[in-house]
Amino acid sequence: QLQLQESGPGLVKPSETLSLTCTVSGGSISSSSYYWGWIRQPPGKGLEWIGSIYYSGSTYYNPSLKSRVTISVDTSKNQFSLKLSSVTAADTAVYYCASDPVAVNLGVDYWGQGTLVTVSS
Amino acid sequence: DIQMTQSPSSLSASVGDRVTITCRASQSISSYLNWYQQKPGKAPKLLIYAASSLQSGVPSRFSGSGSGTDFTLTISSLQPEDFATYYCQQSYSTPRTFGQGTRLEIK
């Protein structure tokens, strides 16, 4: 049973870079079955996929955020990370890390609990 | 990107009612459509994958159907714990995209 846990600052200043890490336990991040993704949800709003990374380092990003997003993986620590640059108040959201199955006929079955990141001076 | 549109955006219903939520994709996604339930302060929970397959542990009152561009989630007899927000999501292509959500409220 996979478990995912987000960690990182809960408050980021405007124009700075948001950095979060997701630690995967109960399985290997080097599994061939999953990409590892970041999804966010502004307060009171819907879900937005930010991007995903495979253990090899292959990534895909949401085009709307691509210019500001970097997702990386550290297989030695069983972790993957999100960096979002030049943040504004619109980036205030609960950020979830999640498993993103390679098989397109499967849904996201493992989620972190989510972490609220507020962008404010 | 593939756009996902859900209807209705909100819905009021009573315990025991049969409820249907629809999701439309901006292009064909075959059967690569998933449904999630989200309760306040919690991560989404996978209910249905591949349009009609019930995730393990999910009650059988939940069902899904559809293919191509049009999909439905049906709850056959609403229970108190079903009042939540429901999202569809396509896994046909990247980036994955979600519908805007349907909030199911108690009448």
UniProtKB/TrEMBL annotation, chain B:
GO terms for biological process: adaptive immune response. Keywords: Adaptive immunity, Cell membrane, Immunity, Immunoglobulin, Immunoglobulin domain, Membrane, Secreted. The keyword Magnesium does not apply. Residues 2-99 form the Ig-like domain. It is found in: Cell membrane; Secreted. Its main location: membrane. InterPro entries: Ig-like_dom, Ig-like_dom_sf, Ig-like_fold, Ig_sub, Ig_V-set, IgV_Light_Chain. SUPFAM superfamilies: Immunoglobulin (SSF48726). GO terms for cellular component: extracellular region; immunoglobulin complex; plasma membrane. This is IGL c679_light_IGKV1D-39_IGKJ5.
